[in-house]
Fold this sequence. Notes:
About 40% of the residues lie in helices and about 20% in strands. By secondary structure, the chain is α/β, with parallel strands linked by helices. A five-stranded parallel β-sheet has the order 3-2-1-4-5, sandwiched between helices. Strands 10-9-8-13-14 form a five-stranded antiparallel β-sheet, covered by helices on one side.
Amino acid sequence: MSDVKKVVLAYSGGLDTSVILKWLQDTYNCEVVTFTADLGQGEEVEPARAKAQALGVKEIYIDDLREEFVRDFVFPMFRANTIYEGEYLLGTSIARPLIAKRLIEIANETGADAISHGATGKGNDQVRFELGAYALKPGVKVIAPWREWDLLSREKLMDYAAKHNIEIERHGNKKSPYSMDANLLHISYEGGVLEDTWAEHEEDMWRWTKSLEEASNTPQYIELTYRKGDITAIDGVDMSPATVLAELNRIGGEHGIGRIDIVENRYVGMKARGCYETPGGTIMLKAHRAIESITLDREVAHLKDSLMPKYAELIYNGYWWSPERAMLQQMIDASQENVNGVVRLKLYKGNIVLIGRKSDDSLFDAAIATFEDDAGAYDQADAAGFIKLNALRLRIAATKGRKLL
């Protein structure tokens, strides 16, 4: 362990990472650099500075990454209409490659030879952090305390903190009911009563979204403006990426939009139940598919849909910084060149109702699609040959007596 001279720690200032900071100093006898990311989690990050200073840390990084997070990670992911296992909008997953990137950047800036994180040995985050780190700095050493130490319970962590005079905020109860992760895209909840897949989640768990009973009784109409697949304005007001997502979170939360309760398949092999609040992302997914419906060629749209599950799996499993994800991203981004226009939605009691969509790049031709007289824009007699040619193989098989049932 003596070969580690300096380590960059992903540091929140909470119980786990505060204990990790001291543990690294004592176990590895090394200098620790702390990195705290503001990804829009809704909590003050600046107090982490004082906590790190109290433990003797001299190099402290506290970075506002909200715009970079949404612009370079969330928006590119939503261009693909990405969803994992039919429900999960990857709120935790998509934040990890940015944190890994910044950890490596700080390691390079400070001359550190190692990075460290607080992810446990049971979850996906350890994989995501470390795959990203190795892709960006192959020779970096990764220290994952949860895979090394014997402090495997909250009680042991609290005792360690007390023994070493580590200041920990207490909120009345000794044990928090949930393990939570938050950023501008979502909040996740795991543990506690949620470990029983039959138990109903508790209403007071949710933080961003109102229940359907408490949601507004008045529907709200919103218009989202798209440019090359990304939202650039809400109701005609231009906004930055992070501001767009924050505002959609606020609006969606008022209308009870974006709650899910799922059991997902983790990359490490186990099933895990999680509850997620993703109000803005849920609106974004619905609206993006709507604007694509009039601006994308049919085969391009279908190809994108066929590639999406693989793209989602890559992000979920931690392969953002992989050549295959980069290749898929280039294809996805190329498809968005003409995804421009406006989508109109009605939000009410957990529902997102598509009202309208328009675009100067629309491929929808009312003259052809009409049920009225199309004035010769489409020759319906052409359909007979089209159907016969597509039925040819079916007719041949039938004449040969091939049975389908």
